[in-house]
Amino acid sequence: xxxxxxxxxxxxxxxQYYQVRKALLRLVIGERWQEEEGLxxxxxxxxxxxxxxxxxxxxxxxxxxxxxxxxxxxxxxxxRLAALPFDLRGRNVLCLAxxxxxxxxxxxxxxxxxxxxxxxxxxSSRHVLNGDFHDLQFADASVNLVYTNSLDHAFDLERILxxxxxxxxxxxxxxxxxxxxxxxGGAATGPYESMVWKSADDLLERLEADGFRxxxxxxxxxxxxxxxxxxxxxxxxxx
Length: 239
Known about the structure:
- By secondary structure, this protein is an alpha/beta fold.
- It is built from 6 helices and 10 strands; from the N terminus they run H-E-E-H-H-E-H-E-E-E-H-E-E-H-E-E.
C-alpha cells in the first residue's frame, strides 16, 4: 500500500509539526537524563510516576493524528513484515506497548495469531489487552515472536528483556523497531520517551549482551525514521 504524493506531503508536514511540539513540551516538563553505556534513561522518582506519565500519552494526541499515524504505520509495517526471512502464518505473536493495535492487525493480516498489551489500551481496540511489558501475564515459552517499537518507553530495560526471554519459545524471534534520528543515528527524544540510545548499534549491543542474536537489520522511514532489528532468542527457554 503505497502513499500518494499528497499523502506523503501531508504526513511530512504533520511530522514536522509534532517535532516542534515535542521540543516545546520538553521545555515545559524539563529534561533529567542519566547516561550509561550508550543508553540514556529519564530519571523518574519512582515506577508509579513513570506509569502515570506514560498513561497520559494517547490523551495528549489528537484523534486526527492518531488516525493518520495508524494508516501510515500499518502500510509501512505491512511491507516490512512481508520482507521478513520467515513465514508468519500460524505463528503466535505478542506485540508490546501496542496502543491502538495497528501492529497487531498487520501481523494478523499476514496470517499470525497476534495480540497486543499496553498500559492504557486504546478504548476502541479489539486487539490490545491491559498489560505491562515489565511484567507480562503470559506463560513461559509460549510465544513464537515478540514485536515492539517501544523500547524507548522502557523504565527498566533489563526487566523487559527478561520477560521477553521468558515468554519466547527457544530460538524464537524478537523483532525490535528502534527510532533513530536521520542525522545522528541515535534515538529521538520527546516528552514521553524514557530511554534513548546514542546509536542503533548501542541498543543492539545491549540486546546481544542479553543473549539475543541478530539475524537481519534494515532501515525504514515510515511512519518515522528507524531500524528494524530481527533477533533470535536464546536457544534455551527462559535463558
